[in-house]
Design brief:
- By secondary structure, the protein is of the alpha/beta class.
- Helix 1 runs parallel beside helix 4.
- The structure holds copper (II) ion.
């Protein structure tokens, strides 16, 4: 039915917008420090909650760089054959998928002095359910919303309904935080 489809589109749009609004920029070391040898980056990284869609921002002076490396090279502070090399003082890394990523500074000795972070990105709470997300109690998910009441007057009602459902969804997500 057209109204139901419109409702689903509304829900999807609301969820998408809300997730965008929730995306967080994590400036490495901020607010007290930055990507340097004097900041306690392990404490900083431990204080962060990285979700898919967030961004990692490295701000640094020209004596540093950012190497994305493997877990093994992270552990041993090996700067050889990095996955990616970033320079320029302002590096933005999009955390587009769940999982662990490893970053070290390529300047000699800096990784050993603590310029290394392990970033563990987890799926955002609002990620569309693809069947099974263990441990997440979701009484209502966009896919399992009850059928809407029969349309009284199909056109005028649908926008209002959309707004109401969108607001309700947002409230629900806010409460879930
Ligand atoms: Cu450095």
């Amino acid at each position: 039915m057209a109204v139901q489809r419109a409702l689903l589109v509304c829900l999807a749009a609301a969820a998408f917008v809300f997730q965008l609004a929730l995306a967080v920029d994590h400036t490495v070391g901020a607010p007290a420090g930055s990507w340097d040898t004097t900041t306690d980056l392990q404490t900083w990284v431990g204080s962060q909650n990285f979700l898919v869609g967030d961004r990692l921002i490295f701000m640094y002076t020209s004596n540093h760089d950012v190497l994305e490396v493997t877990a093994a090279n992270y552990a041993s502070c090996s700067t050889g054959s990095p996955i990616a090399t970033h320079t320029g003082g302002n590096t933005v890394i999009g955390l587009s998928a769940p999982g662990k990523r490893y970053f070290i500074c390529g300047t000699a000795g800096h990784c050993q002095q603590g310029m290394k972070i392990e970033v563990d990105t987890t799926a955002a709470a609002g990620t569309p359910p693809s069947g099974s997300s263990p441990g997440v109690p979701s009484a209502e998910s966009p896919g399992s919303s009850p059928p809407p009441p029969p349309p009284a007057s199909s056109n005028g009602v649908s926008l209002k309904t959309c707004l109401a459902v969108g607001l309700g969804l947002m409230l629900m997500m806010l409460l879930a935080l």
